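Input.
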Amino acid sequence: MDKSFIYALLTALIWGCAPALEKMGLSGKIDPYTGVVIRNIPVAIIGFVGLLMVGRVGSITTVDTKSLIFLIAGGLVAGLVGQYAFYSALKAGHPSVVVPITATYPLVAMLISVLFLGDAFTWQKLVGVLFVVGGVILLK
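Output.
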């Protein structure tokens, strides 16, 4: 297995984990817009300007600790570690292979949602999983 394929799979795994963390973070007393701002700390200035414009700056102070931790964790998992793995895969491999593999992260998110968040697993999801796995095998 070449380096770019491993990095691409790692990227898909990492990016697939973030939605589960964010879902848990959003389960507390927090509105989705504030959650997006917290998740995207590197673009906090733009988010803060957005909060100013809609008059919700005070909503940041109402976020519970659990939500804050999960939203920050989701941002770090996807935005820092996942992006590093993606760039490493791109540097070592071809975008025509790397990008489709990394784009399988919804599969990882779906599996985590079914296994840990109680989402239903249907035959349609199973068929989708088989198509995604088959596509990755064809790229290798």
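Residues 65-92 form the longest helix (28 residues).
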